[in-house]
Automatic annotation (TrEMBL):
Superkingdom of this protein's organism: Bacteria
UniProt keyword terms in alphabetical order: Hydrolase
Sequence ranges assigned to domain Sulfatase N-terminal in this UniProt record: 36-405
Lineage: Bacteria, Pseudomonadati, Bacteroidota, Cytophagia, Cytophagales
Coiled coil: none
Family designation: Belongs to the sulfatase family.
TM region positions: none
GO molecular function: hydrolase activity
Name by which UniProt lists this protein: Arylsulfatase A family protein
A Pfam family per the record: Sulfatase
InterPro entries: Alkaline_phosphatase_core_sf (IPR017850), GAG_Ulvan_Degrading_Sulfatases (IPR052701), Sulfatase_CS (IPR024607), Sulfatase_N (IPR000917)
């Protein structure tokens, strides 16, 4: 009898221990599932029609396509803006960029645009135990005005939520043309200090304007200040010779940093914002990719970026963490061909249509300015599908907060987690889109563009900006190319949208 009791007790104990460790591992599994690694792969100026998965036939982008075709491919996915800085601001803060008057294309000397007290996507993830990093293009300002590039630069991405940063300050066509890691210019020789000025040249320094004989790439408009690696830039820079980047190695450089980041932090949830510089100007493909597309440098750097993304995904696979990594893929604004350099983008375009079926391009309030490739991929978790839900990069902050169990939400960011995971078809009801300070309202299938003075076409880049002296109203479901202005024939819809627009914008 005693024996039997003994055994029963021991059995019960074992059962309890078994249950407990079962619950424990289940909890661990749930925590891991709720805290996957998160990677945002962000292109610079990649258009809606620049990927095969979005209909391109003249260019092949197998690795970007993998993210879109094996994840959710959004057909109504938007950057908040038709230029870089405001889109990046919205992505990282969940705030409409038009709420911040300084959220416009920034020079390399601009102070940090994001308030260090502001909640950001990486800060929110940090609070949830993530190790956070940015590799690539920043373009959100640095310091608090008057940066000394020879000392620690602060505030920088590290003060707004990134544990690690390895960036280019503004754009590839703007000085300073150096990499900055955690606030320090990489490879800087203290005996050759850097000075940067966007107004005045430094005495004796050559410029694109005065020294055409030194150029390996010609400028078309703008871009005629300091010359670095034979490429004339925006802004003047002196010194820092040993720190200057090599343009043709930039893609490999950022890829290597992204890979190292992943490998070094795979044991803890990480967030990586991998912001590629392509296909923004100057387009400088590595020799391995020159001629890859027959489309000149613009096509070739898209092929190069695609290869980098493939190599990056392979690293996630090799490290055994692809299944535990949610990847968002998108672009900061629409496409442009001639953005200021003579690089054959127009001449060698052939039948390629960077905007796909959309009207306009970068800088435009028409669709191609802001509607961009947008995919969410999570191997084994997200079922491949196509979604026509209206979603914006602005929404990632609140949606990812929901994913990781944070109650920090971006002010204008909608929680569309279920939509981003392919579990719900609904997107937002409405979205304000921005292009160089002008705004429009997308609502359901409709877009309303208020009258704007200013040229209909930006001549230098040959892009329709969306300006007209009348209201424009388009039904995008029936007229994706925005050919039929229905403002006159549908005054009720127009009125409804104008009222809603004014309410949201507070005008
Ligand atoms: C414009 C530049 C353009 C590009 C853009 C920023 C000129 C004439 N044009 O001012 O080349 O650098 O700014 O692009 O200077 S973005 O994608 O970073 O917004
Ligand atoms: Ca851009």
């Amino acid at each position: 009898m005693v024996h039997i009791e003994h055994y029963c007790f021991a059995g019960l104990l074992l059962l309890l221990i078994g249950c407990k460790s079962n619950t424990q591992s289940k909890q661990e599994e749930e925590t891991v599932a709720a805290h996957p690694n998160i990677v945002v792969i962000y292109m610079d100026d990649l258009g809606y029609g620049d990927m095969s998965a979005y209909g391109a036939t003249e260019i092949s982008t197998p690795h970007m396509d993998r993210l879109a075709n094996e994840g959710i491919r959004f057909t109504n996915g938007y950057a908040s803006s038709a230029t870089c800085t405001p889109s990046r601001y919205a992505l990282l803060t969940g705030t409409y960029p038009w709420r911040n008057k300084n959220a416009k294309i920034l020079p390399g000397t601009a102070p940090l645009l994001i308030d260090t007290a502001q909640m950001t996507l990486p800060k929110m993830l940090q609070q949830q135990g993530y190790y956070t990093g940015i590799v690539g293009k920043w373009h959100l300002g640095l310091g608090s005005g008057n940066v000394n590039w020879n000392e620690k630069i602060s505030p920088s991405p590290n003060e707004v939520g990134f544990d690690y940063s390895h960036i280019l300050a503004a754009t590839q066509d703007r000085v300073p043309t150096v990499y900055i890691e955690n606030g320090h210019v990489v490879n800087l020789d203290p005996n050759d200090p850097i000075a940067v000025d966007y107004q005045h040249n430094f005495e004796g320094e050559p410029t694109g304007k005065d020294n055409p004989e030194m150029l390996t790439m010609d400028w078309h408009h703008g871009h005629n200040n300091s010359i670095v690696n034979g490429v004339p830039r925006i802004g003047f820079m002196k010194g820092g010779a040993s720190a200057k980047w090599s343009d043709v190695d930039m893609a490999d450089h950022f890829l290597e940093k992204a890979r190292t980041f992943v490998k070094g932090h795979k044991d803890k949830p990480f967030f990586l914002y991998y912001a590629l510089q392509q296909p923004h100007v100057p387009r400088t493909p590595n020799p391995r990719f020159v001629g890859a597309t027959g489309m000149g440098p613009r096509g070739d750097v898209i092929a190069e970026a695609d290869w980098c993304i493939g190599a990056f995904l392979k690293t996630l696979e090799e490290e055994g963490i692809l299944e535990n990594t949610l990847i968002v893929f998108s672009s900061d604004n629409g496409p442009v061909l001639n953005d200021g350099y003579v690089d054959d983008a127009v001449e060698k375009l052939g039948d390629h249509t960077p905007s796909g079926p959309l009207r306009g391009g970068k800088y435009s309030l028409f669709e191609a300015g802001t509607r961009v490739p947008f995919a969410v991929y999570w191997k084994g978790k997200i079922q491949p599908s196509v979604s026509n839900a209206l979603v914006c990069q602005l929404d990632l902050m609140s949606s990812l907060a929901d994913l990781v169990g944070s109650d920090q939400k971006g002010p204008d960011s909608e929680d569309l987690l279920a939509t981003f995971l392919g579990e719900a078809p609904q997107g937002r009801d409405e979205l304000i889109l921005e292009a160089s300070g002008r705004t429009a309202l997308r609502q359901g299938d409709w877009i309303m563009i208020p009258p704007y003075k200013g040229p209909a076409i930006a001549k230098a880049v040959n892009i329709e900006l969306g300006n007209a002296d009348v209201y424009q109203l388009y039904n995008l479901k029936e007229d994706i190319g925005q050919q039929q202005n229905l403002a006159q024939s549908n005054p009720e819809k127009l009125q409804e949208m104008v009222a809603n627009y004014e309410k949201i914008r507070g005008v």
